[in-house]
């Protein structure tokens, strides 16, 4: 037994067990996120049942999707205000997504299972995903055009689904006109306004020159205004066309509600769908989630702006932090005279890695936005003042702040890589007549490239998940436009942006509809984890390629 302890076998097993437990916990966490997130997009069956609270209470019809079920004590439910049969000690309650928030006020309601009849699953139960007010769950009664009933029953369903496809295409065209074409024209008109104000602020121009340039700008404004009017007419025409078509739906309480097809994103009859049809619908809904824009306080729609903002911020951060971190490490290791000052700098760099991230956010807000951004506005954009251009939270400042946050990681990793290069390689290069600079940049730095990539991998992993500093320097709840578009300079680094990490925080803790946002938190978290994995795998692949390349060359 003493020999068993002396040779270290228990500690090997202890470490192996700890690593195994950690891997199991990580796999379990990812599995929980995947199940709760990806399961949200599968079309759920719509249940119908009769519900009554007591013998003398009125029986009501309930129609909706079973979100989840819980087993509770009857005493706890009575204390919560629910009516529970006297002979019951344990009850099951079901959270039913009824939809119809505009009609009932609440789309998620708890129901006691013991007060409900057996669940029925009618094939004609319909689920409508709408642009506003969440889902509508009910029965299709008729299809209308210009207010007149055109079809009822099965014919109404057929006419409705055909017309919905055409209407959805028109609605998408309206969105494209508003978001991109009209947005681009508005941007150009705003630039002309700023140019006119710059003319007024330029004291070097004579009155004739100012009037001549102002006349040219007026002509350009007139051209853009004409384009704007044409786009607006086209949009209004499409709006009038799509508002002609509507359906009448019967809600669970018997009320009828008219829904315009232009307000419907998709319509499904889950109880009448086969497994392949549900699979196709699942892929379609998930793709819309990944490629769409958010709506309804981020509890509906997609997360494309958050994905794009996260990736762009990480790319800009990597472009900034890599050269600065590598050059700093090269100077400290290869050129700086080793002494108390360099040791102090290294200690400071190591301590900088432990500074809370929110401190970097405060620094970015004060230095980058207020000081540097304000100076840029006063120097290069005086015509836009007092409205800030770079003197406000933006993706460039968020990227620079995270570059500072991750700079110590890159410096330390690069220094370790440089220190592992044998001195004999440097001496052999110098003995062959190479200068110190040639030895460094042609021999040492390429051999240390895998260590540099390791630092970049760690930096990307940390930066992609940071939220606290971004809340101060650029991230917003909703960004109407992406930081990239067709207007010069195409990449607008002065714009605020959306971020997956902040999107998770906002939907999870700031959402007005917690139950509706719960599955989106898991789905967004899964996308963030997958995005980090993709970024890291890309960096690891590059690192391994460099390692094998220079290993083969050295052989």
Structural class label = alpha+beta
Question: What is the N-to-C succession of helices and strands?
Answer: HHEEHEHEEEEHHEEEHEEHHHHHHHHH
Outline: flat
Number of domains: 3
Count every helix, treating DSSP H or I runs of 4 or more residues as helices.
Answer: 16
Structure summary, number of beta strands: 12
Q: Whole-Å distance between the termini?
A: 46 Å
Radius of gyration equals 31 Å
What is the CATH T-level topology of the largest domain? Answer: MetI-like fold
Helix content: 55-70%
Summarize the structure.
Helices cover 60% and strands 14% of the residues. With 555 residues, the chain is α+β, with helices and mostly antiparallel strands. The strands form three sheets. Strands 5, 6, 7, 8, 9 and 10 form a six-stranded antiparallel sheet that branches. Strands 1-2-3-4 form a four-stranded antiparallel sheet. The protein has a two-stranded antiparallel ribbon with strand order 11-12.
Notable traits:
SH3 type barrels, 3 domains, six-stranded antiparallel beta sheet, four-stranded antiparallel beta sheet, 14% strand, 16 helices, alpha+beta, MetI-like fold, 555 residues
Blueprint of the fold:
Blueprint: H1 2-6, H2 9-38, E1 46-51, E2 60-73, H3 74-79, E3 90-97, H4 101-104, E4 108-112, E5 125-130, E6 135-145, E7 148-152, H5 153-201, H6 207-242, E8 245-250, E9 256-260, E10 264-268, H7 275-291, E11 294-295, E12 300-301, H8 304-335, H9 340-352, H10 357-380, H11 395-419, H12 423-431, H13 436-465, H14 470-473, H15 500-509, H16 514-554
Antiparallel strand pairs: 1-2, 2-3, 3-4, 5-6, 5-10, 6-7, 6-8, 8-9, 11-12
Helix pairs in contact: 2-16, 5-6, 8-11, 8-13, 10-11, 11-13, 12-13, 13-16, 15-16
């Amino acid at each position: 037994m003493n020999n068993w302890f002396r040779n270290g076998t228990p500690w090997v097993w202890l470490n192996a067990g700890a690593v195994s437990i950690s891997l199991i916990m990580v796999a379990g966490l990812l599995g929980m996120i995947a199940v709760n997130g990806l399961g949200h997009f599968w079309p759920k069956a719509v249940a119908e049942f009769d519900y009554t609270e007591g013998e003398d209470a009125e029986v009501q019809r309930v129609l909706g999707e079973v979100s989840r079920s819980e087993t509770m004590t009857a005493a706890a439910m009575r204390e919560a205000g629910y009516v529970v049969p006297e002979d019951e000690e344990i009850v099951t309650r079901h959270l039913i997504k009824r939809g119809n928030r505009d009609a009932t006020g609440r789309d998620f309601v708890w129901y006691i299972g013991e007060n409900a009849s057996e669940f029925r699953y009618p094939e004609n139960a319909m689920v409508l995903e709408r642009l506003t007010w969440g889902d509508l769950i009910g029965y299709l009664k008729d299809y209308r055009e210009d207010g007149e009933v055109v079809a009822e029953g099965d014919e109404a369903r057929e006419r409705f689904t055909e017309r919905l496809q055409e209407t959805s295409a028109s609605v998408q065209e309206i969105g494209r006109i508003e978001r991109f074409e009209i947005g681009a024209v508005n941007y150009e008109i705003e630039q002309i306004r700023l140019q006119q104000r710059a003319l007024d602020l330029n004291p070097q121009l004579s009155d004739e020159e100012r009037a001549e340039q102002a006349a040219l700008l007026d002509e350009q404004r007139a051209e853009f205004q004409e384009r704007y009017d044409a786009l607006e007419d086209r949009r209004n025409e499409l709006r009038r066309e799509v508002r002609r078509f509507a359906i009448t739906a019967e809600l669970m309480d018997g009320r009828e509600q008219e829904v315009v097809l232009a307000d419907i994103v998709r319509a499904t009859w889950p109880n009448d769908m086969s497994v392949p049809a549900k699979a196709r619908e699942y892929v379609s809904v998930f793709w819309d989630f990944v490629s769409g824009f958010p709506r309804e306080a981020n509890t509906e729609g997609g997360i494309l702006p958050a994905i794009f903002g996260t990736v762009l911020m990480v790319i800009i951060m990597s472009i900034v932090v890599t050269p600065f971190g590598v050059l700093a490490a090269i100077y400290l290791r290869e050129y700086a005279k080793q002494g108390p000052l360099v040791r102090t700098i290294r200690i400071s760099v190591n301590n900088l890695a432990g500074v809370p991230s929110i401190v970097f956010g405060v620094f970015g807000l004060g230095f980058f936005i207020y000081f540097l951004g304000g100076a840029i506005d006063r120097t290069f954009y005086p015509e836009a003042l007092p409205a800030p251009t770079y003197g406000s939270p933006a993706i460039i400042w968020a990227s620079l702040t995270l570059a500072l946050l991750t700079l110590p990681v890159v410096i330390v990793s690069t220094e370790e890589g440089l220190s592992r290069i044998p001195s004999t390689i440097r001496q052999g290069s110098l003995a062959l007549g190479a200068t110190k600079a040639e030895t460094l940049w042609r021999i040492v730095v390429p051999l240390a490239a895998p260590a540099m990539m390791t630092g970049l991998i760690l930096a990307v992993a940390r930066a992609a998940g940071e939220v606290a500093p971004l809340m101060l320097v650029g991230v917003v709840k909703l960004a109407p436009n992406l930081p990239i578009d067709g207007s010069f300079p195409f990449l607008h680094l002065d714009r605020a942006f959306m971020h997956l990490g902040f999107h998770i925080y906002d939907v999870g803790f700031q959402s007005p509809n917690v139950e509706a946002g719960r599955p989106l938190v898991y789905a967004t978290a899964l996308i963030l984890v997958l995005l980090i994995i993709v970024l890291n795998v890309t960096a690891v692949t590059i690192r391994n390629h460099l390692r094998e390349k220079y290993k083969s060359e050295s052989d």
